[in-house]
Design a protein that fits this description.
The complex is a heterodimer of chains A (118) and B (109).
Chain A: E1 5-7, E2 10-13, E3 19-24, E4 31-37, E5 44-50, E6 65-69, E7 75-79, E8 88-95, H1 102-105, E9 108-109, E10 113-117
Chain B: E1 3-5, E2 9-13, E3 18-25, E4 29-37, E5 44-49, E6 53-57, E7 60-65, E8 70-75, E9 84-92, E10 97-99, E11 103-108
Classes of the chains: A mainly beta (118), B mainly beta (109).
Chain lengths: 118, 109
């Protein structure tokens, strides 16, 4: 079956512009995560959606970052007024996400969007 | 909140055994994952532990001690292709996982 997909795969933008990144999770996965990964560094948690619960936004680095998810489907991460420090790979992952162990909580990652802010 | 610690870097020789440790503090613990991430690629699932003890899967094994908040990933008969980052992630009973910063393993000939 189809895995997690993300678009675009690469995005080059100018400082100050807004960007929108898209994630299509695996069908039926209730949990969806966004992460940022700078070159040579670990995964930085940004936001977590779980079903119809209020999203966990505790990882968003500033109010320039926001994310939405439509039901249990596609999610978009928006970065307003981009800065050079926003340059990174943005990874999306999904899982069944119901606290039931490996079969439900293993995260499946998309290929990421590489964002470059000039 | 959760606190997850792993060594930043490790180096080992091809054919050898290496152990990557992970310590954590969390509430509502519901399992610990290990993921592998090759450079330029997305992380992929390696193993999962929820009960104390050792889970073996081929050349890779993962150990958990819940009372000590400790896990390790053991890689045997190292191959050059095992050079990657290894990420420890703790899952709560709400279904949310949190990652450590990862351990970059370099395997040398």
């Amino acid at each position: 079956g189809a895995g997690v997909s993300q678009s675009p795969s690469n995005k080059v933008t100018e400082k100050g512009k807004d960007v929108e990144l898209r994630c299509d999770p695996i069908s039926g996965h209730t949990a969806l995560y966004w992460y940022r990964q700078r070159l040579g560094q670990g995964l930085e948690f940004l936001i977590y959606f779980q079903g119809n619960s209020a999203p966990d936004k505790s990882g968003l680095p500033s109010d320039r970052f926001s994310a939405e998810r439509t039901g249990e489907s596609v999610s978009t991460l928006t970065i307003q007024r981009t800065q050079q420090e926003d340059s990174a790979v943005y990874l999306c992952a999904s899982s069944l996400g119901i606290g039931g162990g490996a079969s439900t909580d293993t995260q499946y990652f998309g290929p990421g969007t590489r964002l470059t802010v000039l | 909140g959760q606190n997850i610690d792993q060594p930043t870097e490790m180096t080992a020789t091809e054919g050898a055994i290496v152990q990557i440790n992970c310590t954590y503090q969390t509430s509502g613990f519901n399992g610990l994952f290990w993921y592998q991430q090759h450079a330029g690629e997305a992380p992929t699932f390696l193993s999962y532990n929820v009960l104390d003890g050792l889970e073996e899967k081929g050349r890779f094994s993962s150990f958990l001690s819940r009372s000590k908040g400790y896990s390790y990933l053991l890689l045997k008969e190292l191959q050059m292709k095992d050079s990657a980052s290894y990420l420890c992630a703790v899952c709560t009973n709400a279904g949310k996982s949190t990652f450590g910063d990862g351990t970059t393993l370099t395997v040398k000939p």
